[in-house]
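Write out the 3D structure for:
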Amino acid sequence: MSASIYSAAQEEVAHEFNGSSTFSSLGLALYVLGYGVGSMFLSPPSELPSVGRNVPYVVAMTIYVLISIPTALSQDIATLLTLRFFQGFFGSPLLTTGGASLGDVSREPNKPYAFYSLATFSLAGPALGITRAGFSTPVLG
């Protein structure tokens, strides 16, 4: 449940937990806050040769996926909001370290195309995600 699907489901979250739409939008804000804080802690170790780029990706994404389960099953708004922060925290290395990973694996004449692709898909993902969530959230709840 990333940022785009949550923003489409804010009304359902407010209804499910008997809160206001302002209070339910805190879930998106905490996700983005966790995204910013997590990138400061989880991305710098990837620059260490002893750690490499793969370890932060694997550890953070594993925790991100595992946190998604209790987030989907949360019974109160406090649990949901806390887990949303941690989802943002552990989801952050994917985007913040992605450029460095592309720089490592692409050759010099192709680097501009690699970075163009990263920028394009990084911007297209949330736009397409919220469009899809806008259709699926009312149907699936």
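The first helix runs from residue 3 to 8.
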